[in-house]
Amino acid sequence: MSLLSRHSRKSGALKKSKSKSEDFEYTAQDLPSLRRKRTIAIKRLNKALEIGQLAKSDPSQRDLFLSYHHDIKNIAAAFEDAHFSILEILDDTADADACLQEQFDDTYYKIESIYRSLIRSEDAKQSKSVSSSLNVRLPKITLPTFSGNIKLWPEYFDTFNALIHNSSSLTETEKFHYLVSSLSGDALSIVKAFPLTHEHYTSAYQALCARYKNKRDLAFACWREILNIEFKCKDAKEFRKSLDTFDENLSILKTINLPVQDWDFIIVYHILSKLNTEMRRSFEEKHSDIEFPTYNQLKLFLQSKCNQKIP
After folding, report:
1. Which parts of 56-93 fold into alpha helices (H)?
2. Dihedral (C-alpha) 248, 254, 260, 264: value to the nearest 10 degrees?
3. Organism's domain of life (predicted)?
């Protein structure tokens, strides 16, 4: 039995879903059009990923990939508008539809990963092209500033290594100056303990890594933020920001190979405990036939609430 017919038997009628413009409501008659719109967005994103994979080994494809990447936020917006409207009309989050969101998200972040990798590669090539034999002032390289927030360490570490630490055109003294200029706060205090000379660069760099290249501390920081996140159920903007922060921390935990995919029960319980009674009841009623709802099902529900501007 199809999702549509199964729901019709349960409720007798399909819900309407408001479009983002707030002056038009989708109905069951709009489902074919919404599904086409969603499918087009999925195909466009898959094409962007395909070009991105080619661009990693074929420089002639990089400009085309950058053009695709420039448009992926619009593609994502079109997908979410259609996808959440479909789910609201059907009033159902069956696995077939719920999985589409997860697959779309995976493709989106793969594209972002390829983009960052290509940009870092280009920046590294540019820095290597500077001749170390020329006694001229090096071009200014913009680096992220790291103050000691361990959640920002992986990004800072990758960028600094690509642009500075692994550069064959920079002396140890120059690398040390770049290291010091890109740090502040507690992180700067660590390297300030070493004299700013070429023979101390490696020791300063290793001391910084020893302090912040710590998966356990990173995991603790992410989990602590997850536990402390508050969901303001009456403010759609703040609610979405909290949901994004929650997802960001889970993503970091995934990158250090923690089994986040097995934590659905814990995560769902924790988020539900943060919601007000009305929203919690609404979720429970919608998923009363599911023994243990997944985090993805809860996320879809909460995202749809944000799109409706809550409640």
Report:
1. 62-70, 72-90
2. 30
3. Eukaryota
Do 293 and 287 touch, CB atoms closer than 8 A?
Answer: yes
Residue 97 resides in a domain = yes
**pLDDT 10s digits, 63-93:** 888 888 999 899 999 998 888 888 888 766 5
DSSP state of 139: P
Domain residues for the domain of 234 are 214-311
Cα-trace Rg, the chain: 24
Which is more confidently placed, 129 or 46? Answer: 46
- Confirm if 138 and 113 have CB atoms less than 8 A apart: no
Q: Examine residue 6 and state whether it is found in any structural domain, yes or no.
A: no
Task: Give domain status of residue 30, yes or no.
Answer: yes
- Please give the pLDDT value at position 263: 93
> Count of alpha carbons within 13 Å of 30, Cβ hemisphere only?
23
Same-domain check for residues 205 and 218: no
Which whole-number Å values give the CA distances from 305 to 187, 282, 300, in the listed order?
40, 10, 9
What's the pLDDT tens digit per position in 45-54? 999 999 999 9
Residue with tokens 């408001």: 18
- Same domain (yes/no): 56, 153: no
Give the chain's length: 311
- Global pTM reads 0.46
**What is the tally of structural domains in the chain?**
3
d(CA 163, CA 226): 32
- Torsion of the alpha carbons at 225, 230, 236 and 238, rounded to the nearest 10: -50
